[in-house]
Design brief:
alpha+beta, 3-stranded antiparallel sheet, elongated, about 170 residues
Length: about 170
């Protein structure tokens, strides 16, 4: 497969995942791959059992990632505030006029305190970051497997976006 096709398919897979979380829990009989160009269907096929299994795995891995993101989302506002404060203090800690460089030692100390707080917050949550990284690798592996199972006809379809629907979902043309 050429690089453009792989990139397009990978982006399409990401869009599919964000669109069809429903499919993870749906145990209906058929999943259908539908490709569009200019809002018109240019390719349509029922997923094979192997493709469906790969797609279900990809959705399961994606759902697991969402769960793993929750602890990080909890600390994100604190991390954002500390980072913002660090930038503000950094701007004030050193000032320069003509031939004079002024360094405020108190603000440098404050900057070091903020850096330690940021480091500690990240250190305490390192297992969560590690879990996210590992899950990202599992998603990538599942996406590559799903991508490898796509039919050659899809590459020839010259599509703009792809959708996977179940027999209980309605097609959306765009």
């Amino acid at each position: 497969m050429n690089t453009i096709f792989k990139t397009t398919l990978t982006l399409s897979i990401a869009a599919i995942l964000s669109y069809s979380a429903y499919a993870t829990t749906n145990k209906s009989s058929d999943y259908e791959l539908v490709a569009y160009k200019d809002c018109e269907i240019v390719y349509r096929a029922t997923l094979s059992p192997k493709q469906k299994a790969a797609y279900d795995l990809l959705n399961q891995e994606s759902a697991a990632m969402k769960e793993l993101e929750l602890p990080i989302q909890t600390i994100q506002p604190t991390l954002d505030n500390l980072t913002k404060e660090m930038k503000e203090v950094s701007l004030l800690a050193v000032s320069e006029t003509d031939n004079i460089l002024r360094i405020d030692k108190n603000l440098i100390d404050k900057q070091n305190e903020l850096a330690k707080k940021i480091d500690n917050l990240i250190k305490v949550n390192q297992p969560n970051f590690d879990a996210l990284e590992a899950q990202g690798k599992r998603i990538e592996k599942a996406a590559k497997e799903f991508e490898s199972l796509m039919p050659e006809e899809l590459e020839q379809a010259n599509y703009q976006n792809v959708q996977i629907v179940t027999d209980q979902q309605t097609l959306k043309n765009c």
